[in-house]
Design goal:
With 155 residues, this protein is an alpha/beta fold. α1 packs across α4 (118-137). β3 and β4 form a beta hairpin. The chain contains 4 helices and 6 strands; from the N terminus they run ββββαββααα. A 3-stranded parallel beta sheet has the order 1-5-6. The protein has a 3-stranded antiparallel beta sheet with strand order 2-3-4. Helices cover 40% and strands 21% of the residues. The chain starts with a strand and ends in an 18-residue tail after the last helix.
Length: 155
């Protein structure tokens, strides 16, 4: 039983990047390329944010789903799922009822989201992103949620 954090991306063209790269390159054609933040890293940050809200006992799993027609000339990085593969995962997961621990964690998430204004949720999200970036760079952080006044756990 787990809370799923699903990141969906819909691109076309060729995507170059791997699990450890900070940035990936999307090549729409030979003349048009752009950088994108590694969606695996983006999803990991979102998983950490949900885990901080859901509680330390919660199981939170991230999924990155590529829903577009993009190709990975050097191979699809580990941790990405095609839309068809994710549909199979979701169908299988939907066959069983979540346990009490997962339901309680989900209630924590719902209460957190419903208890705040859009502005305060956005501010909390930015604080979580900043704390995550500080952890990745090796800087200590003691982020305190402005809305709740609680010390947010570090990962």
């Amino acid at each position: 039983d787990t809370i799923a954090v699903v990141e969906t991306k819909c691109y076309r063209g060729a995507i170059y990047g791997d699990e450890t790269s900070n940035q990936w390159t999307v090549a729409y054609n030979p003349r048009r390329k752009e950088k994108m933040y590694n969606p695996l890293r983006q999803n990991a940050t979102h998983v950490n944010a949900v885990r901080a809200i859901a509680g330390p006992e919660a199981s939170v799993t991230g999924f990155v789903v590529m829903a577009g027609r993009a190709k990975f000339p050097k191979g699809m990085p580990s941790g990405l799922h095609s839309l068809q593969a994710f549909q199979a995962i979701a169908r299988n997961a939907g066959k069983k009822r979540p346990d009490a621990r997962t339901l309680a964690a989900w209630e924590n998430v719902k209460n957190h989201v419903s208890g705040g204004s859009r502005a305060s949720l956005k501010r909390d999200h930015k604080e979580t992103l900043a704390a995550s970036a500080a952890r990745r760079s090796g800087k200590a952080t003691g982020a305190t949620s402005k809305r709740s006044g609680r010390k947010e756990p570090s990962f």
